[in-house]
Amino acid sequence: MFAMRKIPWGKYIFLMLVAGFVLVPMFATVLGGFKSLGELRTNPFGLPEVWEFEYYAQVFADGSIWQLMKNSLIIAFFSVLLTLIIGTMTAFTFSHIKFAGYKYLYNYFLIGMMFPAAAAILPLFLKIRDLGLLDSLSGVVIPQVAFGLGFSILLFRTFFEQLPSELFDAARVDGCSYIKFYWHVILPLSTPILATVGVFVLVASWNNYLLPLLVLNTEQQYPWTLGIMQYRGEYGIEWNRILAYVTVTITPAIVFFLFAQKYIVEGLTGGAVKG
């Protein structure tokens, strides 16, 4: 007799609802760029009756989008790079080196998780102005790294502490210093958590609107989140063009997420189960 396997219908239905809540607007956005305005109003969620490729072609032919994408890519690249370097070094120190007051210093970094950038927008603007970083990409990158360090240090430290202590003991016997152990042992074993933190930082940086709006004044420095507002003002009622523009600009973040998703679950389960 085979035991009847109980199917968790409730779980499946809940997951399908969550997936539909995310995927339906995304597919409607992608398909909306292939529709005429009339069809977009009458059939916003269905497949196009006639596939119109001209709106996507016009977005790609517009030279400004490549400058916007380039600026967004530079900001995201340096935000991810600096967050990973500073975050891993700091977390490695907290996980392997015990010094007086390290718990207070660790908690000080975690306090940054409690305050979003919008809560400190005025003092942040004044500090960026005093440092002479207004209207520069570094004025966007540095605050993003600072506000992302608390979350990244929490994940990195938990992941590092779960690595076998015998690795460090064996390295010490072989005369390995902290720097060599960090570079040759810790980093190669931390690919899942590096990918996890990298994806979160990249997506947050790619979609950041408030901080570039606060810092940047020159159009040549704008990322895509500011560029789309100009595009929205230029083609206010042509929603098919705007949806095509949105689809093109969010594609890099989605592609990077899909590329790194196999590491995300492993990194989260290995690095975020305890604080």
Automatic annotation (TrEMBL):
SUPFAM superfamilies: MetI-like. It holds the Pfam family BPD_transp_1. It comes from the Bacteria. Gene3D superfamilies: MetI-like (1.10.3720.10). The keyword Zinc-finger does not apply. The keyword Secreted does not apply. GO terms for biological process: transmembrane transport. Residues 69-260 form the ABC transmembrane type-1 domain. The chain crosses the membrane at residues 12-34, 73-94, 106-126, 138-160, 181-206, 242-260. Keywords: Cell membrane, Membrane, Transmembrane, Transmembrane helix, Transport. GO terms for cellular component: plasma membrane. It is found in: Cell membrane. It is a multi-pass membrane protein. Its main location: membrane. Belongs to the binding-protein-dependent transport system permease family. PANTHER family: ABC TRANSPORTER PERMEASE PROTEIN MG189-RELATED, ABC TRANSPORTER PERMEASE PROTEIN MG189-RELATED-RELATED. This is Carbohydrate ABC transporter permease. The lineage of its organism: Bacteria, Pseudomonadati, Pseudomonadota, Gammaproteobacteria, Oceanospirillales.
